[in-house]
Amino acid sequence: MNLRLWLIKLLVNKIKSIQKVAVIVLQFNNSESTKACLASILESLIRPDLIIVVDNASNPEHLGNLKSFISDKPEIELIESSGNSGYSGGNNLGIKRALSQGVEAVFILNNDVLVAPEMFSQLLKTLNANPQLGIVGPVSQEGPQKTFGGQVNWFKSELKHLTKPSASTNQIVYIPGSAMLIRREVFERVGLLDERFFLYFEDADFSFRAQRAGFLIGIDPNTGIQHFVSASTGRLGENKLLYYHYRNALLFQAKNMPLGLSLLIPLWSIWQFSKQIIKSILQPKKSQTARAIRQGIIDFYLGRFGQIKKTFL
């Protein structure tokens, strides 16, 4: 028996049916979206056992708005982060709290999402039906388009969403972090989200780590969410978004790319860096954008991760 099959068999023997579930909603400002998200959770046919909201150091007005909304809802627990630790750091606060309460699965949910009433019960049913399945997500309605998980194209600064149902789970290489239900055993085996990313690529990285540990991942086509894409991150501005995309694409590829391809990462970096120099010369109006991308590449090689500190972006 090869090592992967042995590992899967070992996991299946240890995994039990999931009974207790926590949902984590991360907020950084945008409190009206958070309230709508929580309202949709509370209308679920089967509610999660724990509902945890992590506030990532929002402005006082947004934090106050959230506190007012949950003041008469004792089933919702609020964790206030001392600073904005990004998607990974904020969710990790909620994950650690949920695991300490003995939950058997954690559902990570963006605050710019509305869930279908049957979503939790359907995803639990799917997860319990297949002990090898470590992470499962719903279909995501994003404007006029539905997405069914994600794929990775190497040497690209962005990830790709599948817009058609996959005939094979092998075609789905990551579950988007906007909505993913994760077994406790996945965290116990691979750890928490990598906080170096801060924003973007951490969901794909987590899916890769889970699969290397022997778990399967998948999208349940029988339930869905409404995702109002980038309701919070869109406010960062183009330059910061590009900085995170390029820096984190390099980090993700360095961690997960096949060895033969990973030897080409420095060449791709030089090519991208050179393109941005040329862009600054030929298109002066885009010089700040080009500078942000170059800084992202530089910071990867200098090991500068987490939240960006450069004010010029």
From TrEMBL:
Q: Which domain of life is it from?
A: Bacteria
Which InterPro entries would you find in this protein's record? Glyco_trans_2-like, Nucleotide-diphossugar_trans
Q: Does the keyword Transferase apply?
A: yes
GO terms for molecular function, please? glycosyltransferase activity
- Which terms are listed as keywords in the entry? Glycosyltransferase, Transferase
Entry's Pfam families?
Glycos_transf_2 (PF00535)
Enumerate the CDD domains for this protein: GT_2_like_c (cd04186)
Gene3D superfamilies named among the record's database cross-references: Spore Coat Polysaccharide Biosynthesis Protein SpsA, Chain A
Domain named Glycosyltransferase 2-like: residues = 23-190
> Family assignment?
Belongs to the glycosyltransferase 2 family.
What name does the UniProt record give this protein?
Glycosyltransferase 2-like domain-containing protein
Lineage runs: Bacteria, Candidatus Yanofskyibacteriota
